[in-house]
Design a protein that fits this description.
This is Peptidase. With about 280 residues, the protein is an alpha+beta fold. The protein has four helices and 13 strands. Strands 2, 3, 5, 6, 7, 8, 10, 11 and 13 form a nine-stranded antiparallel β-sheet that branches.
Length: about 280
């Protein structure tokens, strides 16, 4: 049976084949014509379009009301790429991102403000310069941890034009070819029950307080915000989806209790549910 997982793997393999043969062609001649070398690219685009259309139709057919959960952060944060403004919020249904949201922390009184986007210089900033870095992240509901990993490094920011172009033209391509785990970086997946799973992406390396199989209560600290994976700066990427596999899951709409769904560039304040802290 030709499953969605098979289609996703085929799509990734075709892109990888295209880039590998392009790299090889710079050193040796390919044993087939130049026109043939473009076939993997054409096929990859075709499979990608078919996947996107099929996923979009499935999401429309299985539309669900927003699932209300607690906010995953505390303090002042600003929303980016919000589903309150458009869906899919990140321009794709891939990896269950249809209703995903990115949030960045705002400086509290006396703290250094978040570095702004630079056209040329500085090319990159250290993660520690951003208020979101190392901010605690909390369980949005009583749940079971189904996946937890935090071994990938926190890289420098990509918040300048040269660094952003590097991210979009090279780094992001490599990460997509390597698979979903390289895109989301360090991450957690929680089973909230009733066919709903929560994803916390771009976590700080070594910050997890839980592991797969743990049962957690709403408000418990799970990890800290980082800058791993396909990330321009330290932030939390949060989403709900209908399964634990990022390659096959569909996005599920959410609303944060007491906050709702903040719009792009909207700043909100949050207080997590009472919790016992990391165990």
């Amino acid at each position: 049976m030709f499953t969605r997982k098979t289609a996703v793997v085929l799509h990734r393999t075709l892109w990888l084949l295209f880039f590998v043969q392009m790299a090889v062609s710079f050193t040796v001649g390919l044993p087939y014509s130049y026109a043939v070398s473009w076939l993997p690219l054409i096929a990859a685009v075709g499979v990608g379009i078919a996947l996107a259309r099929h996923t979009g139709k499935e999401i429309e057919a299985a539309a669900r009301p927003p699932v209300e959960v607690d906010p995953p952060v505390a303090g002042r944060w600003t929303a980016l790429n919000s589903p309150a403004d458009r869906t899919p919020s990140h321009g794709t249904h891939q990896y269950g991102q249809t209703y995903a949201i990115d949030i960045v922390a705002e400086a509290e009184d006396g703290e250094r403000s978040r570095p702004s986007f630079a056209w040329l210089w500085p090319v990159a900033c250290r993660s520690e310069e951003f208020p979101a870095f190392d901010a605690p992240l909390f369980a949005v509901a009583d749940a079971t941890v189904v996946h937890a990993e935090d071994g990938r490094r926190d890289h420098l920011s990509r918040n300048s034009l040269p660094a952003f172009l590097y991210l979009m033209l090279f780094e992001a391509t490599v990460r997509v070819l390597a698979g979903a785990r390289r895109v989301v970086g360090n991450h957690l997946i929680l089973d909230l029950g009733n066919g709903t799973y929560a994803v916390y992406a771009h976590l700080r390396r070594g910050s997890l307080t839980v592991r797969a199989g743990d049962r957690v209560t709403a408000g418990r600290q799970l990890a800290r915000c980082g800058n791993s994976g396909n990330s321009t700066e330290p932030h939390l990427h949060f989403q709900l989806m209908n399964g634990p596999d990022l390659d096959t899951a569909r996005g599920v709409p959410f609303t944060w209790r007491g906050v709702g769904v903040p719009k792009n560039k909207e700043t909100f304040e949050s207080i997590p549910a009472a919790h016992p802290g990391p165990a």
